[in-house]
């Protein structure tokens, strides 16, 4: 009986882990594309065509979307660098996490990890706080402020679970998509420690039952 119960628990835990890993990223785009040149952060993208959304077309129905079948997804944002004259930043869930200059300058490959339990557009944004004529905020899960075609976000799929997301700030005659570059990865939330302890305890109970049977 214990053996059957243990097998059932193992199956349930395995199914839970599988469901949690069933999280993917996709772009809900506008059909806009751009041939990248002069990208100093991800040079491998130069002379390739990427998907993009500019500020005049950005709304709450387009952007990078996380699809979760069940369970909870873990989202990791990795700062890849920036080459920009403006002072830019990236925010995750309303909190500024990466800066390209100043006292809070972010080191390359710094990461921030959050979780999300429901499907929806990822809650992140790029923004500029200086110079004053270029200030604004470009939301992945909302609109661009200001809504101008000179503002843009680029998207490059790496796999079903990872994207490069590239910021192109408001600048004069510049569209190189390296004003901030971030990699976004989604993965399963690790199996809870409590589940592992439960499996260990049940395994011990099964071993003890077998020993008693042998002793009898």
Q: Could you explain how this protein is built, in words?
A:
The protein is of the alpha+beta class. Helices cover 20% and strands 40% of the residues. The protein has two helices and 15 strands. Strands 2-3-13-14-15-5-8 form a seven-stranded antiparallel beta sheet. The chain has a five-stranded antiparallel beta sheet with strand order 7-6-10-11-12, with no helix packed on it. A hairpin with a 5-residue loop joins strand 10 (124-130) and strand 11. Helix 1 (2-21) runs antiparallel to helix 2 (193-215). It is globular and about 50 Å long. The relative contact order is 0.22. Residues 2-20 and 205-215 have low confidence and may be disordered.
Précis, in short:
This protein has 216 residues and is an alpha+beta fold. The protein is built from two helices and 15 strands. The radius of gyration is 23 Å and the shape is globular.
Could you list the spans in which at least 5 consecutive residues all have pLDDT below 50?
2-20, 205-215
Measured by DSSP, the beta-strand proportion falls in 35-45%
How far apart the termini lie comes to: 18 Å
Major beta-sheet overview: 7 strands, antiparallel
Helix/strand/pairing category = alpha+beta
Order of helices and strands: HEEEEEEEEEEEEEEEH
Can you count the beta strands?
15
CA-based shape: globular
| Helical residues, percent | 10-25%
Radius of gyration: 23 Å
Q: How many helices in DSSP terms? A: 2
Biggest sheet: strands side by side, in what order?
A: 2-3-13-14-15-5-8
Oligomer: single chain
Mean pLDDT: 84
């Amino acid at each position: 009986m214990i053996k059957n119960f243990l097998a059932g628990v193992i199956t349930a835990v395995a199914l839970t882990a599988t469901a949690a890993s069933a999280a993917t990223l996709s772009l809900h785009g506008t059909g806009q594309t751009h041939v990248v040149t002069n990208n100093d952060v991800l040079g491998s993208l130069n002379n390739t065509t990427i998907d993009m959304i500019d500020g005049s077309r950005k709304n709450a129905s387009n952007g990078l979307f996380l699809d979760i079948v069940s369970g909870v997804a873990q989202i990791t944002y990795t700062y890849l660098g920036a080459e920009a004259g403006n002072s830019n930043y990236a925010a995750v869930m309303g909190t500024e996490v990466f800066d390209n200059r100043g006292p809070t300058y972010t080191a390359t490959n710094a990461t921030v990890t959050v979780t999300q339990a429901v499907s929806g557009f990822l809650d992140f944004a790029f923004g500029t706080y200086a110079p004053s004529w270029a200030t604004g905020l470009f939301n992945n899960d909302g609109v661009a402020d200001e809504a101008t075609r000179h503002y843009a976000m680029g998207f490059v799929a790496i796999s079903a679970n990872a994207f490069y997301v590239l910021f192109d700030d408001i600048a004069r005659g510049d569209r190189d998509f390296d004003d901030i570059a971030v990699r976004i990865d989604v993965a399963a939330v690790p199996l809870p420690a409590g589940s592992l302890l439960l499996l260990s305890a049940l395994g011990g109970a099964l071993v003890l039952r077998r020993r008693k049977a042998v002793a009898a």
